[in-house]
Specification:
single chain; alpha/beta; OB fold (Dihydrolipoamide Acetyltransferase, E2P); Rossmann fold; Ribonucleotide Reductase Protein R1, domain 1; 6-stranded mixed sheet; 5-stranded mixed beta barrel; 13 strands; 28% strand; binds guanosine-5'-diphosphate; binds magnesium ion; binds zinc ion
């Protein structure tokens, strides 16, 4: 049997599509295994000219998750960069931005923010002001307009994407697909091919897919979502995923401080003094609560 190494470029239920050199192969797993993510490098056994069985997954460099009370779901494997796409309109949720940042930190993935639709000038000042919190934490914010300044958008994003495995995430309507269409000129055709191969029907935006746009770089478009559960992150992981907490860790009165309502907590002191944004600490509190609710 012929064996190949491929990259998983799309997943739909338990059906996967792998790219192996020029070949696109429809893949299934052995047994009931469903632990394959888009971006995984897999060893494949060819079962027909365009079909294969996934024999094993090559050790992942990173793995991005989201989860709810009941289960955790892999979003993508082997990412090096995560781009949170927001826009001047529709309104975005700070909660989702911070959750995405926390997920990236926990997975060891570098996070950036893209502010799209800067052509919508009425809401631009307010949007910039809202994003200043994240810029102050050291997360780069890149301003673009996919619609009115596509060349500038490409010039801004290309160097950031080069040599990286990137994912674009965010609420739907922010312009993720518009930006990817600029970066990957034949993305539309690729989507049609993938939908046909996976038989996903017309709902082409409901699955995650990877585009290799040069030999060293690839980019993943994900469906928009309204929630980003992080039930899988332990308290220890959470306190380290809020990067502004770092200088204060180890300075609390109690070595096992939860930074929730303990006396002489260095993190709470910093919140009181304005060094840590209250909005971020409120989310930390919420995430600690969520992680204590896990049922799986
Ligand atoms: N005004 C404006 N509209 C944009 C821009 N980029 C995308 N859009 C529009 O925003 C809507 C959502 O874009 P889409 O790429 O599908 O967003 P996605 O859901 O995040 O993938 C579409 O109607 C786009 O035409 C932009 O830079 N400016
Ligand atoms: Mg889209
Ligand atoms: Zn503390």
């Amino acid at each position: 049997m012929a064996t190949f190494t491929g990259t998983i470029i799309a997943a739909h239920g338990r059906h996967y599509l792998a790219q192996a050199d020029e070949l696109k192969l429809q893949c299934v797993t052995r047994g009931k295994k469903t632990d394959v993510a888009v971006g995984d490098i897999v060893n494949l056994n060819l079962t027909s000219p365009n079909q294969a069985v996934i024999e094993s997954i090559v050790e992942r460099k990173t793995l991005l998750y989201r989860s709810d009370q009941y289960k955790s779901k892999m979003l993508a494997a082997n990412l090096t960069r995560l781009f949170i796409v927001v826009a001047t309109e529709p309104a975005f949720a700070d909660d989702l931005i911070s959750r995405s940042l926390v997920a990236a930190e926990a997975a060891g993935i570098e996070a950036h923010i893209i502010l799209n639709k800067v052509d919508v000038t009425e809401s631009l000042p307010r949007t910039r002001q809202r994003l200043a919190v994240y810029a102050a934490l050291g997360y780069p914010v890149h301003e673009v307009s996919a619609r009115t300044a596509p060349e500038h958008a490409c010039e801004t994003l290309m160097p950031l994407l080069h040599g990286q495995s990137s994912i674009f995430i965010g609420q739907s309507g922010m312009g993720k697909s518009s930006l990817i269409n600029l970066i990957v000129p034949d993305a539309d055709i690729a989507v049609r091919e993938i939908s046909a191969a996976l038989d996903t029907g017309k709902h082409t935006t409901t699955f995650t897919r990877l585009y290799a746009f040069n030999p060293e770089s690839n980019i993943i478009d994900s469906p928009g979502f309204q929630e980003f559960g992080l039930y899988h992150l332990s308290e220890g992981m959470l306190e380290r995923a809020f990067r502004e907490f770092t200088p204060h860790l180890g300075h609390c009165k109690f070595y096992n401080c939860h930074h929730l309502n303990e006396p002489s907590c260095a993190v709470l002191t910093a919140v009181g003094a304005g060094g840590i944004a209250r909005m971020r600490h409120d989310l930390y509190r919420q995430l600690v609560h969520e992680s204590s609710q896990v049922l799986y």
